[in-house]
Amino acid sequence: MVKDMKSSGYFVIGIIFLIILFIVVSFKFNVYKITFVVDNEIYKTTEVRKDTALKEVPVPTKEGYAFIGWYDQNGNVYENGTTITDDIIYYARWATIVTDENEN
């Protein structure tokens, strides 16, 4: 009888371990990594759950330039509320600020 109780204890522990492992693996496979790159350097990375949108998108600054948005490698702009469906890298795009030096 003691042997049966010990075996069933290991069985229960094994089942609990498998359940925890399943939860951890399921969570990890349902998370996507978003990388934001500014001037060929990683500016920020974040993770988001599958089929959701980012809650907060970083806005970098650069002297002499206006930030115009985040673009993927194909030139598609990230718009607020865009659903993330895979790991992705976004690149900052800038516009040069032109000033009239003759103005005083």
Question: How would you explain this protein's 3D organization?
Answer:
It is a single chain. This protein has 104 residues and is of the alpha+beta class. It has 1 helix and 6 strands, in the order H-E-E-E-E-E-E. The model has no long low-confidence stretch (mean pLDDT 83). The protein starts with a helix and ends in an 8-residue tail after the last strand. 3% of the residues are buried. The chain is rod-shaped, with a radius of gyration of 24 Å.
Helix content: 25-40%
Total of DSSP H or I helical runs spanning 4+ residues: 1
CATH architecture of one domain: Sandwich
- Residue stretches low in confidence (pLDDT < 50, at least 5 long) are none
The SSE order reads HEEEEEE
* β-strand amount: 35-45%
Rg, Å, rounded:
24 Å
Lateral arrangement of strands in the main beta sheet: 2-1-6-4
What is the CATH third-level topology name of one domain?
A: Immunoglobulin-like
List the helices and strands and how they pair.
Blueprint: H1 2-29, E1 31-38, E2 41-49, E3 52-53, E4 65-71, E5 83-84, E6 88-96
Parallel strand pairs: 1-6
Antiparallel strand pairs: 1-2, 3-5, 4-6
Comma- or semicolon-separated keywords:
104 residues; 4-stranded mixed beta sheet; Immunoglobulin-like; 27% helix; 6 strands; alpha+beta; 1 helix; two-stranded antiparallel sheet
Brief sketch in words of this structure:
The chain is α+β, with helices and mostly antiparallel strands and 104 residues long.
